[in-house]
Automatic annotation (TrEMBL):
Entry keyword Transmembrane: no
CDD domains: TRX_Fd_NuoE (cd03064)
Keywords (A to Z) from UniProt: 2Fe-2S, Iron, Iron-sulfur, Metal-binding
Cofactor(s) recorded in Swiss-Prot or TrEMBL: [2Fe-2S] cluster
UniProt-listed PANTHER family: NADH DEHYDROGENASE [UBIQUINONE] FLAVOPROTEIN 2, MITOCHONDRIAL (PTHR10371:SF3), NADH DEHYDROGENASE UBIQUINONE FLAVOPROTEIN 2, MITOCHONDRIAL (PTHR10371)
Key word Transcription present: no
Record protein name field: NAD(P)H-dependent oxidoreductase subunit E
UniProt family annotation: Belongs to the complex I 24 kDa subunit family.
Length: 188
């Protein structure tokens, strides 16, 4: 029963970005990292869900159904408990982003400084169709799989808006007219 719920609830749909990330596999390195993190939570293994999910996303780019099942088995809990964490936190991705993932701040200061126009310009340049964007699927990937976009909540740079992250690189003062030069910094 639990596996049926998992199959129906996880938004892990195929993405052109998958070609840039290895398929989930619980390698010896991943097992060692997970075992070490679990030791930090001797009272309740359930508390290790977040650290294990971070390990998975860092190595594989997103949280797949297989990864959810692995984390659940590793912690001896039901997969639905892991899924509830994945779906609660917007920082966890349930499908592969592009090789270069653009998170553009949409809070007030950035919006007033042009972040929505910046999003439009990046999508135009990278051939991303944002009509596929939804609350359940906040990331849209370019057909080539090299680029993806999503809106982010405050990136804490209101005085130098609009701000965005490209993968984990922070950029500020990125007005729409600077979109092409931003993209050029990350050659596909």
């Amino acid at each position: 029963m639990s596996q049926d719920i998992l199959e129906n609830a996880v938004a892990s749909h195929p993405s052109p970005g998958e070609k840039h990330f290895p398929k989930f596999e619980a390698t010896a390195e991943i097992e060692t990292l997970a075992d070490e993190r679990i030791t930090h939570y001797p009272v309740s293994k359930l508390s290790a869900v977040l650290p294990l999910l971070h390990i998975v996303q860092h190595h594989f780019g997103f949280i797949s159904k297989e990864a959810i099942t692995w984390v659940a088995n590793k912690l001896e809990i039901e997969p639905i408990k892991v899924l509830s964490v994945v779906t609660f936190y917007p920082g966890f991705r349930q499908s592969a982003p592009g090789k270069f993932h653009y998170r553009i701040c949409r809070t007030l200061s950035c919006a007033m400084a042009g972040s929505h126009e910046l999003m439009d310009k990046i999508c135009e340049i990278t051939n991303i169709d944002r009509t596929q964007l939804s609350h359940h699927n906040p990331i849209v990937v370019s057909p080539c799989g090299n680029y993806s976009v999503e809106f982010a909540e405050c990136l804490a740079s209101c005085g130098s808006a609009p701000a965005c992250l490209v993968n984990d690189d922070f950029h500020d003062n990125i007005t729409p007219d600077k979109a092409q030069s931003l993209i050029d910094q990350y050659p596909a």
